[in-house]
Amino acid sequence: MFIDKVEVYLKAGNGGHGAVAFRREKYVPDGGPAGGDGGRGGDVIFVVDSGLRTLMDFRYKRKHVAQNGENGGNSKMSGKDGKDLIIKVPPGTLVKDKESGRIIADLVETGEEKVIAKGGKGGRGNQHFATSTRQAPRFAEGGVVGQERSVVLELKLLADVGLLGFPNVGKSTFLAAVTKARPKIADYHFTTLTPNLGVVQWKGGNSFVMADIPGIIEGAHQGTGLGHQFLRHVERTKLLIHVLDASGIEGRDPIEDFDTINGELIKYNEKLAQRRQIVALNKIDLIPEEEQEETWGIKRQLEEKGFEVYLISAATKKDIDKLLDRVIELLDEIGEVPSIFEEEEIEDSLVAQQGEKNFTVRKENNQYMVEGPDMERLIHSVNFEDIDSIRYFQRMLRKMGIIEELEKMGIQDGDIVAILDIEFEFFH
């Protein structure tokens, strides 16, 4: 079965918490702070493996979690970093953030890797909070929670040449004629249900990969006939061969079909529509001699549109060699093509470090509730029985912009603020 789209949940490791500890040495009754730092949480990393061909494995495992970093220890011992989680994907895997739809990675080359979810930073031990006036800090910093996200994986065939055309124009027959691929060939008026792939071995040792793109019908750019699913497979091809039925035995107009499919490509992705394209007028073996002039007329119309046109018969292999000779020339001429997609940078796990608001404040039953992914880390960093720790907590509330947000909402002295299960009175 060909699996080309799947949704998975990813969770990077949490950073370990910093430790509160003090030196315990003989004859040194009041040793200084010696709490170690927490280890960094493991990243979730995707790596391209050329041995994989489908996303089948992701059907059975939808949740992937990296290892957490260890907490800091005594004697300034740092906790171990969490192990990165390496996930292998086939070449041609596109990774999208489910929530925003933005592209995170476009993975093509064997061995290429990308961090998809970043592990949390480890918290600092109390050794880092000692000052000339605070020589024995009884608090440490909590570890950062690792990034978590749901992503959609889409697999695109890495074909050099893609065959475009309406169902039943002879694309599968053409692919079978020039490669060892054996696609199912029948009189299907809807479409081939999965993309067929084959390697063309040509003169002088030249070879290239060709994909029979499942039939595109009008409205494909809107998802009609599974159009979105099918169109994805032509997004990386260097060259498109547009196969048309020159015989007209089914009453179709080749020029109208040509314009319809190209219109769908433009609506779907303008960059894709700009890929080099040549035309193969197929089934010329079925055209009676008295109707051949009409075929030449179709050829002239397409050439006037600026396209190279070849008259072939996939069934009898007539003049296929001329077409393939030209394909080899064009692939060499075109070279590498730029990706159609633009990747986004993976945001840091600590959004607050980027100066962005990473919390929400709401009022409920005369209480101000502060919520957000960094609140657990902040609360863990505070020893509410230690005055220095409470001062640190107050500074962090101001630095993160929480005090400013509360003031904007009209908080007054004596009002109750709740962060997780901690409640305190607000005073300016």
TrEMBL record:
OCT domain location: 338-428
Superkingdom of origin organism: Bacteria
Record key words, sorted: Cytoplasm, GTP-binding, Hydrolase, Magnesium, Metal-binding, Nucleotide-binding
Task of the protein: An essential GTPase which binds GTP, GDP and possibly (p)ppGpp with moderate affinity, with high nucleotide exchange rates and a fairly low GTP hydrolysis rate. Plays a role in control of the cell cycle, stress response, ribosome biogenesis and in those bacteria that undergo differentiation, in morphogenesis control.
InterPro entries in the cross-refs: G_OBG, GTP-bd, GTP-bd_Obg/CgtA, GTP-bd_prot_GTP1/OBG_C_sf, GTP1-OBG_CS, GTP1_OBG_dom, GTP1_OBG_dom_sf, OBG_GTPase
EC numbers: 3.6.5.-
Quaternary assembly: Monomer.
One of the GO BP terms on file: ribosome biogenesis
Protein's organism: Irregularibacter muris
Gene: obgE
Cellular localization per UniProt: Cytoplasm
Ranges of residues in domain OBG-type G: 159-332
One GO term describing the cellular component: cytoplasm
Cofactors required: Mg(2+)
GO molecular function: GTP binding; GTPase activity; magnesium ion binding
Domain Obg: 1-158
Keyword Transmembrane helix carried by entry: no
Protein name: GTPase Obg
